[in-house]
C-alpha cells in the first residue's frame, strides 16, 4: 500500500473513532440530564411542633433512592402562627394555617409529580400533651389538618402524633443518614460500613419535650428505652428517651411557677434569669395554664403576677436544680434526670433545635470550650435589657428575653442530667448538615417510604452511575485504539 493510502486509512479510522467518542459523550451527557430531570421525586413532611409548624420539601433522583446521602431538602416553609395544639378553640383554623406552605410546595413540584408526592404530618410534644388532657380535641385538630392536606393533589399518607421515642429515633436517623455514618460510597466504588465509632448521637430540645438518642457502648439494660433497627444489613440498638414537659418553654414555665410558689404567691417576684430592666406580667391563668405544672388548690385566675429581672447568673443556674430532679433514680449510676434510666453517653453528638438556636445566638456554634461557654453565658446574663435590645434589634424579644434562662437550663441538662461533664467537646451544635435541616422529619420520611433498606444487598449504586462508568471505559478504550493505530503507522513509515 502506498503511504498516501495508508495515511488516508489512518485518518479515516481516527476520525471515525473521534466522532463515535464525541457522539457517545454527547449522548451520555444528554441521557444523564434527562434522567435527572424526569426522575426527580419529591416528599413532604410537616413538623407540627409545640410552638410552630414547618413544612419540609425533600427531593431525590427517582432510581437512586436505595443509596444513602441522596435525599436532600429542596425547600422549607414556616407556617404562620403558633403550633397546631394552640388551636383548641378553632381547630378549623389549624387546617387553614397550612395552606400557604402547601401552595408554595405545589408551585415548586412539577405537576406530573403531584399525585405521587407523599405528604406526612407528624405532631410532637404539644399535641402529645393536648391528647393527654383532651383526646377528642386533639383528634379534631388532626382531622382538620387532614382535611386541608387531602384537598391538595398530593399522596397524603396521614397526620399523627409521634411517640417521644419515635421523635428521638428519627432525629438520630436523620443526622446519621446525612453524615453517611450508616453506609458510605468508597473511592473504589463500593458501599462500605464506616467504623462503628462514627455513629453520632442526637440531642433535640423542643419547646415541650427534649430527646436524647445514641448507641451506647454496652447493650441497653432497660428495654423500655431501647429502639432496635436494622439498616443496610446492620443491626443498631439505640438508647432513646424523651422527657415530656422538659422542652425549653415548659422548663422555663416550671421555673416561673417555682418562683411564684416559693414567693408566697406575692404579686411581684424577682427573676434572676431575666435581665435587669426587663419585666413580664402574666395572669395566674397564663402562668398555670400548662399540664406540666401543678396548679395551686385555689387561685384567682385573673389576678396578675409581675416577674422583675435581676440578672443574677449564678442564682439563675442554681435555680435550675429545682426544676430538674438530679437526685432520685432507681438505676444508679445509669441515670439521666428525673429518675430516667440512661447508660453513659457514647461518641460524638449533634445538638439541634433550641440547643442550636440558643448557642447560635451566644456565638458558641458549632462548638466552644467549656470555659468559654460558661463565661459567655455569664456575660450575657449580666447585660441589662435596654442595651441587650439595642445591640440585637433584629432578634424578637420573645426569644431574646429567654436566652439567659435557656442557656443555664441547657447547661444543667447537658452537664448534670446527661452527664457530658467529662465529654463536653463531643457535642456540636448544628442546624443543618449538607444543606438539610437537622430534625426528626427526614428520618421519619425515609423510614415510612422504605428508603433505607434493612438489607445490605439492596444498597447498590444506581443505573446512571454504572452507565457513566461504561461510557468512560468506552472513551478510554477508543483513545487507546487511536494510539495503537498511530504507533503502527509510525513503525510502518520507518520501514
Ligand atoms: N430563633 C430562635 N431562638 C430561640 N429559640 C427558638 C428559635 N426558634 C425556635 N426556637 C425554639 O425552638 C423550640 C422548638 O420547639 P418545637 O419543635 O416547636 O416543640 P416540640 O419539639 O417540643 O414539639 C421552641 O422552644 C422554640 O421557642
Ligand atoms: Ca421539635
Automatic annotation (TrEMBL):
Family, similarity comment: Belongs to the GDA1/CD39 NTPase family.
PROSITE patterns: GDA1_CD39_NTPASE, PROKAR_LIPOPROTEIN
Active site: 167 (proton acceptor)
Main location: membrane
Keywords, alphabetical: ATP-binding, Calcium, Cell membrane, Disulfide bond, Glycoprotein, Hydrolase, Magnesium, Membrane, Metal-binding, Nucleotide-binding, Transmembrane, Transmembrane helix
Catalytic activity: a ribonucleoside 5'-triphosphate + 2 H2O = a ribonucleoside 5'-phosphate + 2 phosphate + 2 H(+)
Record InterPro entries: GDA1_CD39_NTPase
Transmembrane parts of this sequence: 7-30, 468-491
EC number: 3.6.1.5
Cofactor: Ca(2+); Mg(2+)
Lineage of producing organism: Eukaryota, Metazoa, Chordata, Craniata, Vertebrata
Keyword Nucleotide-binding: yes
Membrane protein topology class: Multi-pass membrane protein
Molecular-function GO term, any one: apyrase activity
GO biological process: nucleoside diphosphate catabolic process
Source organism, top-level taxon: Eukaryota
Residues annotated as binding ATP: 207-211
Top-level class of the enzyme under EC nomenclature: hydrolase
Any GO CC annotation of this UniProt entry: plasma membrane
Transmembrane recorded as keyword: yes
Organism: Carassius auratus
Gene designation: LOC113050429
Signal peptide segment: none
Cell compartment(s), UniProt: Cell membrane
Protein name: Ectonucleoside triphosphate diphosphohydrolase 8
Amino acid at each position: 500500500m502506498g503511504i498516501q493510502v495508508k495515511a488516508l486509512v489512518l485518518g479515516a479510522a481516527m476520525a471515525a473513532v473521534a466522532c463515535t467518542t464525541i457522539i457517545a459523550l454527547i449522548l451520555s451527557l444528554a441521557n444523564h440530564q434527562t434522567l435527572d430531570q424526569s426522575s426527580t421525586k419529591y416528599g413532604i413532611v410537616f413538623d407540627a411542633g409545640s410552638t410552630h409548624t414547618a413544612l419540609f420539601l425533600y427531593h431525590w433522583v427517582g432510581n437512586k433512592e436505595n443509596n444513602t446521602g441522596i435525599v436532600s431538602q429542596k425547600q422549607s416553609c414556616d407556617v404562620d402562627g403558633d403550633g397546631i395544639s394552640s388551636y383548641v378553640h378553632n381547630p378549623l383554623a389549624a387546617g387553614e394555617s397550612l395552606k400557604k406552605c402547601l401552595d408554595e410546595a405545589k408551585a415548586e413540584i412539577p405537576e406530573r409529580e403531584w399525585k405521587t408526592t407523599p405528604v406526612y404530618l407528624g405532631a410532637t410534644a404539644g399535641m402529645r400533651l393536648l391528647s393527654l388532657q383532651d383526646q377528642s380535641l386533639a383528634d379534631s385538630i388532626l382531622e382538620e389538618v387532614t382535611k386541608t392536606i387531602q384537598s391538595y393533589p398530593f399522596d397524603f399518607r396521614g397526620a399523627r402524633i409521634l411517640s417521644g421515642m419515635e421523635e428521638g429515633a428519627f432525629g438520630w436517623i436523620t443526622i446519621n443518614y446525612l453524615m453517611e455514618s450508616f453506609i458510605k460510597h468508597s473511592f473504589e466504588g463500593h458501599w462500605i460500613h464506616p467504623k462503628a465509632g462514627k455513629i453520632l448521637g442526637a440531642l433535640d430540645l423542643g419547646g415541650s419535650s427534649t430527646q436524647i438518642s445514641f448507641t451506647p457502648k454496652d447493650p441497653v439494660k432497660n428495654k423500655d428505652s431501647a429502639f432496635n433497627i436494622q439498616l443496610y444489613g446492620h443491626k443498631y440498638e439505640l438508647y432513646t428517651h424523651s422527657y415530656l414537659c422538659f422542652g425549653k418553654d415548659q422548663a422555663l414555665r416550671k421555673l416561673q411557677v417555682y418562683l411564684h410558689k416559693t414567693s408566697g404567691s406575692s404579686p411581684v417576684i424577682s427573676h434572676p434569669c431575666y435581665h435587669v430592666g426587663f419585666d413580664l406580667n402574666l395572669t395566674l391563668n397564663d402562668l398555670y395554664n400548662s399540664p406540666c405544672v401543678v396548679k395551686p388548690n385555689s387561685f384567682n385566675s385573673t389576678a396578675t403576677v409581675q416577674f422583675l429581672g435581676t440578672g443574677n447568673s449564678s442564682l439563675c443556674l442554681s435555680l435550675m436544680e429545682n426544676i430538674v430532679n438530679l437526685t432520685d433514680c432507681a438505676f444508679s449510676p445509669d441515670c439521666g434526670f428525673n429518675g430516667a434510666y440512661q447508660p453513659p453517653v457514647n461518641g460524638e453528638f449533634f445538638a439541634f433545635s433550641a440547643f442550636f438556636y440558643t448557642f447560635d445566638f451566644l456565638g458558641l456554634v458549632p462548638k466552644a470550650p467549656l470555659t468559654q461557654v460558661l463565661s459567655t453565658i455569664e456575660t450575657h446574663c449580666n447585660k441589662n435589657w435596654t442595651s441587650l435590645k439595642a445591640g440585637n434589634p433584629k432578634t424578637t424579644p420573645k426569644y431574646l428575653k429567654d436566652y439567659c434562662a435557656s442557656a443555664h437550663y441547657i447547661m444543667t441538662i447537658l452537664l448534670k442530667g446527661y452527664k457530658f461533664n467529662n465529654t463536653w467537646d463531643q457535642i456540636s451544635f448544628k442546624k443543618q448538615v449538607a444543606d438539610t435541616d437537622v430534625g426528626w422529619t427526614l428520618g421519619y420520611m425515609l423510614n415510612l417510604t422504605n428508603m433505607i433498606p434493612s438489607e445490605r444487598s439492596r444498597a447498590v449504586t444506581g443505573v446512571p452511575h454504572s452507565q457513566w462508568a461504561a461510557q468512560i471505559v468506552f472513551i478510554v478504550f477508543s483513545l487507546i485504539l487511536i494510539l495503537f493505530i498511530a504507533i503502527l503507522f509510525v513503525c510502518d513509515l520507518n520501514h
